[in-house]
Automatic annotation (TrEMBL):
Protein name: Retinol-binding protein 5 isoform X3
Originating gene: RBP5
Bias-annotated ranges (Basic and acidic residues): 100-109
InterPro entries the record matches: Calycin (IPR012674), ILBP (IPR031259), Lipocln_cytosolic_FA-bd_dom (IPR000566)
Annotated spans, Disordered: 100-125
């Protein structure tokens, strides 16, 4: 719980560098750094053990002006979108919620995949 509270206080810097179809995305903070390197349109194994302890097959593509990531693994339909509006970088996440069998009298929550609302990351240089 304390780790989550610390993570919510962080304001990481995001650096995105691309040369043709090769992209490097660096998420840098005082707590933890994560570097993602890939070729657009080519599936690769992403090692997310530093983030949440898992590995998955990932593909990142361009959809209009947005960089779109789809991760295949233990959590289906997971991924993110990045895009620029002016000097602001936006990130939107997607994750399919796990479902469970409900007992008598229990209520179910939202199910299925959905995109989280976009939020503003740090201003781009």
């Amino acid at each position: 719980m304390a780790l989550r509270k610390i993570a919510l206080l962080l304001k990481p810097d995001k650096e995105i560098d691309h040369q043709g179809n090769h992209v490097i995305v660096k998420t840098l903070s005082t707590f933890r750094n994560y570097i993602l390197e890939f070729d657009v349109g080519v599936e690769f194994e992403e090692d997310l053990r530093i983030v949440d302890g898992r590995k998955c097959q990932t593909i990142v593509t361009w959809e209009e002006e947005q960089l779109v990531c789809v991760q295949k693994g233990e959590v289906p339909n997971r991924g993110w979108r990045h895009w620029l509006e002016g000097e602001k970088l936006y990130l939107e996440g997607k994750q399919e919620r796990k479902t469970k069998a409900l007992g008598r009298g229990e209520r179910g929550g939202n199910r299925g995949a959905s995109w989280a609302p976009g939020y503003k990351s740090d201003e781009c240089p």
